[in-house]
Amino acid sequence: MENFILSFAVSVLLLHSFAFSLNSISTDKHALISFKNSITSDPYAILSTNWSQNNTSVCNWIGVSCGLKHRRVTALNLSGYGLVGTVAPHLGNLTFLRYLDISFNSFTGKIPSEIGSLSRLKELYLGLNDFRGMIPEEIGNLSQLEVLSIPDSPLTGNIPSSVFNIFSLKFMDLSNHSLSGNIPSDICDRLPNIEVLTLWTNQLSGEIPPNIWK
Known about the structure:
Elements lengths: L1 H36 L1 E3 L4 H5 L13 E3 L6 E5 L6 E2 L13 E3 L4 E2 L15 E3 L21 E3 L6 E3 L12 E3 L4 E5 L4 H4 L5 E3 L4 E3 L9
Parallel strand pairs: 3-5, 4-6, 5-7, 7-8, 8-10, 9-11, 10-12, 11-13
Antiparallel strand pairs: 1-4, 2-3
GO molecular function: ATP binding
Pfam family, one: LRR_1
Organism: Salvia splendens (Scarlet sage)
């Protein structure tokens, strides 16, 4: 009797785990489909022909990588595909994402604040697009971020102070915008792991320590 109860309990646990896994990858799929639906031009037909809502696993979609253990989306690399459109806020639901690169496209609108929900993110590449407005304050929530690369978009406003508190940051490129405000005088204390900091062609005041200036 005890063995039966134990076997039943294990079966229920496995079923629950399987159902949770399906629900989780369904969340990832919905986020990617929402991202796709925000694209107005896909000149190489990458998303329109390869990303679909049928039974094909998102892990097999072009530009998408999944983890081996949980089969959740861990990387999204769509750099240089000539995509036009806005970035759907649903991208913030890819909670296992560690790498995001949508650089060298023609995305417009604002950088969605929901990107700040990607708590596992280590590398973020958004540069060479046509984003407008300000860098979201929520970017500073990315406590594991090591690379922040957003050059060459007409962004304005101050660099959020929260960005200068990302302890893990090693590389930051926010060059060629119209950003204003002050560069913190204690930037090396606040970003102790920073190796490369590129902020040229902005309207910032203050100095960058020569050992991290590029």
